Amino acid sequence: MVAAQEAPAKLVGQPLKRREDPRLITGAGNFLDDVKLTGLCHAAVVRSPYAHARIVGIDAEAARRMPGVVAVFTGEDLAEVNPLPCAWQAGNVQNNVNTPRLLALGEVHQVGDPVAVVVAESAYLATDAAAAVEVSYEELPVVVDARKATEPGAPQLHDNAPNNVVMNWTCGKEAAEVDAALAAAPVRVNQRVVNQRLIPTAMEPRGSIGRYDEGTGEYTLWATSQAPHVHRLLTAAFVLGVPEQKIRVIAPNVGGGFGSKIFLYFDMPLVLWLSKQTGRPVKFFEDRSENYLHTTHGRDHITDIEVGAEPDGRITALKVKTWANLGAYLSTIAPGIPTTLYGRMVAGCYKIPNIHVDVTGVYTNTAMVDAYRGAGRPEAAFVIERVCDLVAAETGLDPAEVRRRNFIQPEDFPYDSGIGMLPYDSGNYELALDRAMENVGYAALRQEQAARRANGSRKLLGVGLSSYVEVCGVAPSKWIGLAGEGWGAGLWESANVRVHLTGKTVVTTGSLPHGQGHETTFAQLVADELGVPYDDIQIEHSDTQGTPFGFGSYGSRSLTVGGTAIYKSVAKVREKAKELAAHLLEAAPEDIVFENGKAFVRGTPDASKTIQDLALAAHVAYDLPPGMEPTLEATTFYDPPNCTFPFGTHVCVVEVDRDTGEIDLLRYVAVDDVGNVINPLIVDGQVHGGIAQGLAQALYEGAVYDDSGELITGTMNDYAIPRARMVPTYELDRTVTPSPVNPMGAKGAGEAGTIASTPAVANAVIDALAHLGVRHLDMPLTPEKLWRAMAPKTG
Amino acid sequence: MATAVPMATRIPVRISVNGTEYAAEVEPRLLLVHFLRDNLGLTGTHVGCDTSQCGACVVYLDGKSVKSCTVLTVQADGGEVQTIEGLAKDGVYDPVQQGFWEMHGLQCGYCTPGMIMSAHSLLQRTPNPSEEEIRHALEGNLCRCTGYQNIVKAIQYAANQMSGAGVSGNGSGAGTHNPQDVGDWKGELAGEST
Ligand code: FES
Ligand code: FES
Question: Mean pLDDT, to the nearest integer, of A43-63?
């Protein structure tokens, strides 16, 4: 499947099966809803059935008298509590910020807005009572489409956001300069593309449990969280006004997130507040319908593209205007996604001298939109990869040739794309393209396609390419601070590595998993670097009590940023161990070699001190060098100098039935370059899942609202999460271009598949119809849509 | 649910779960999945949806795999339930569990108990399924993490183990079912029967 390119240096590079799995395959995992607490109450939320309305009155008396009800609260009861913060606003421009309150006060702006909460002895009783809360509304006009929302006369959601505009943001050259380049270009293409709204759908919905301890004044929050330290910070300092040290946040096993569990949601501070009010621990666990209605969505861009190119396929100018639908309010980092992570990545793998990007963030009466797997980069990749195919169609060149003629070359790195992104770290884009074309048998496929077209076959063959680059390991705090990117804080990570007296080693990290196998990967890394047996290493995470601060797991940053913090801590531990060994072996520290967990004087490996010997000596501390502190541990706060930029090429081959529009996925070939790989089994798994999510956007998924703001795709019956039969076999391969940014040479692997696959599949399907004059179709590419596109051509 | 709360109607049930007999009085509306999770504390069975789509809740009821979110506890009265917690025996994983581990058939693990139960049920009916049959049998189980490829491989691994010389999911101690149980398992798919 994957070419064995990873040097089998000890455990790093080995496909170890995961140490997390035994508990998960036996039902012994501990997810949020599994947490057992004495006296636990259950919260049920009363939600607005209207997308936009004034709350006229709430009558909760009947609910309060129902069996098992502990308390009922409405927005009025929480009037003194701050709304949620927006921690990442678009840089250097005005942001008209409106964030949700824990319970709506006065007005609701989307179906599912929480207006009241019932706390009861059981989830069943809480739900019963919530249904008995009478809320009267006065309906207000509704808008769900981002472009329509900015037009004159559109319904207005928030007083401080005229025309529902969150912000207007640009990057790249001035519009006039790019217009001039467009005007001078011999080849011109204009196209509107829609990147439809998606629902992340982690299989575990979201939830939280709050417990207030009256004795100590301390709160504990269990939450389905990708970022417990940040959730503590925001809850404490921005919402509840509780001292940060009085809140502890624990993320138990998290059942997938894909971005949707990064953000601070209403229920997190609410359950803490409810626990204090009721004197009982309180759990909120959304059901799937609530998850679809009210947990954040992703994507939802409308984009007008203007491209200028030379007849030889070189792209000379690109102008992009995007309306980004951000929903009813701003989620935690919503404005940052369509700006820094989208606008600054639209150049993709290509040298394009003139680029102008204009993004308007818009409020509508829909669920909030924020980061969803790839977050901005899939939208950017979709734009530029559609552009390559549009230019190919216009010039008559092969899509592979257009890509090749525009690629950034290996000698160009570090490469500045000129639109405000940090320099791309390293890459060899053509190599990945060549490998993918070879693996799929590209030339033969094109011949087959030509033959089928010539003989009028009813089975249309389509081949789609997607050469992508993405930005990962987002962190450099200096960049974030200086460039006016609007982030609330730097994004460094931290780790402590501690070798106990017994030689057992504990790593505490601010990074945390929600399915990615951090415990395995990090332990492989430490085992190699420290020479401690793999089974002696424990990775501790996901609890603000006992782990150093971390900004969380998202953006494929756990290994490149969090892992580097571990790597550097191990190096510090090794240095201390060497110093101690020098003392015990009566040698100079510079003469000590540390290899495979043993320290010895160069040339005399037989007289060595093992890391376990040294840990014992460091702890009993009978005989330490002058000035050395006892114990053997180190902490690192790591702020990388740059982001990392994984890349690759995916190829999809489809067959479209000319008569029914049905699509068969014949082949899916991926060549990814995520830099050096620690655990190929885990990396392949990440790519598999990513491809499935991305191809589902191309073919199946789409969140749909009607004009009244009702979510039509509100359950798994209506929203097409792919099933096993709906996805192909993935044929994976890798090239390895180490990142110079971190000592492991890793680039990050969590999002690559999702970013690459959507355009690969969409390009393949559109390519199948190209000879019928079809240049573009909006996703999801359903058989009906294809059938309609082909219909005018049928006899 | 919480036994402290007085309820109008409660119905006595006796249900065997993973070989242990339980007697309880439950509300007629109590779903089997909540009985397992809340009354018995068997939280390996998960809830991922409210429309019987996801399959995170699949368990065996009287030898047939069912979505326990779509079965009332009172319907299981007198029945035998087996959950993910009952699959491994004496610390030995069932071949399906082993397959998921070996082949990286799980990431977050939330879908996994239901996946394993559905896969187990498939292999009882069809010991050597084709890839197509495996993908078809998982129609009622959603996974958002893995893209399914390694789940398919996990099930193929288990099928090989179970049919391979000396390694059996039923008779070797790796499984918890006796052959008589297996003989009855020729029913419909989990997802389709509920
Ligand atoms: S919980 Fe989703 S099918 Fe039962
Ligand atoms: S492993 Fe996460 S949903 Fe299947």
Answer: 98
Q: What is the pLDDT of residue A4?
A: 41
**Same structural domain for residues B124 and B75?**
no
Determine contact, residues A156/A164, Cβ cutoff 8 Å: yes
Instruction: Tell me the chain A residues in contact with residue B67 when contact means C-beta distances shorter than 8 Å.
Output: none
B78 and B19 in a single domain? The answer is yes
CA nearest ligand 2 atom 3, residue: B143
Question: How far is residue A178's CA from residue A338's CA, in Å, rounded to a whole number?
Answer: 20
Is A128 inside any structural domain? yes
pLDDT, tens digit, 9 for 90 and up, residues A354-393: 999 999 999 999 999 999 999 999 999 999 999 999 999 9
Other CB atoms within 10 A of residue A488 CB: 19
Q: So what's the pLDDT on residue A488?
A: 67
What pLDDT, on a 0 to 100 scale, did the predictor assign at position A777?
98
Kindly report the nearest CA distance between residue A729 and chain B, in angstroms. 7
- At residue B2, the pLDDT reads 45
pTM reported for the whole predicted model? 0.94
- Residue A542 belongs to a domain with what CATH number? 3.30.365.10
Tell me, yes or no, if A794 comes closer than 8 A to chain B by beta carbon: no
Complex ipTM: 0.96
User: What confidence score (pLDDT) does residue B174 get?
Assistant: 30
Q: End of a domain among B62, B86, B110?
A: B86
Q: Do B44 and A721 touch (CB under 8 A)?
A: no
The single-letter code of the amino acid at A647 is F
> Could you report the per-residue pLDDT of A527-552, keeping only the tens digit for each?
999 999 999 999 999 999 988 888 88
**How far is Cα B33 from Cα B29, in angstroms, rounded to an integer?**
12
Q: Which residues contact A383 (CB under 8 A, 6 or more apart)?
A: A193, A303, A305, A320, A346
Cβ–Cβ under 8 Å, residues A228 and A251: yes
Q: Supply the CATH number for residue A48's domain.
A: 3.90.1170.50
**Residue A149: inside a domain, yes or no?**
no
Phi-psi region of A238 (alpha: psi -120 to 50; beta: other; left: phi over 0): alpha
Of B36, B54, B65, B117, the residue with max ligand 1 atoms within 8 A of its CB, to mutate for a pocket test, comes to B54
| Beta carbons of A33 and B102 less than 8 Å apart | no
Domain assignment of residue A326, given as a range: 298-475+642-790
Whether residues B135 and B59 share a domain: the answer is no
Our answer on whether the CB atom of B139 is closer than 6 Å to any ligand 1 atom is no
Instruction: With CA atoms as reference, report the closest residue to B53 among B114, B100, B125, B107.
Output: B114
Residues A749, A683 share a domain? yes
CB atoms closer than 10 angstroms to residue A595: 10
Print the domain residue range for B109: 95-179
- Answer yes or no: is B194 within a domain: no
Evaluate whether residue B175 is within a structural domain.
yes
Q: Is B76 inside any structural domain?
A: yes
- The two tokens of residue A359 are 């993004």
* Same structural domain, A679 and A783: yes
The ligand with the least distance to the CA atom of B118 is: 1
Domain assignment present for A155? no
- Average pLDDT estimate for A603-607: 92
pLDDT of residue B8: 61
Are A748 and A557 contacting, i.e. CB atoms less than 8 angstroms apart?
yes
Q: In which residue are the tokens 């699509």 written?
A: A663
Query: Looking at the CA of B154, which ligand is closest?
Result: 2
Average pLDDT over residues A433-461: 98
Q: Quote the distance between the C-alpha of residue A487 and its chain's center.
A: 16
In this prediction, residue B182 carries a pLDDT of 29
Question: To probe the interface with B, which of A723, A725, A729 has the most B CB atoms within 10 Å?
Answer: A723
The pLDDT of residue A5 is above 70: no
Report CB contact under 8 Å: B101, A692.
Answer: no
Is A617 part of any domain?
yes
Compute, in angstroms, the gap from residue B68 CA to the centroid of ligand 1. 7
What number is the average pLDDT over the span A278-288? 98
Task: Report the share of chain A in percent with pLDDT over 70.
Answer: 97
Of the three residues B30, B65, B86, the one that is the final residue of a domain is B86
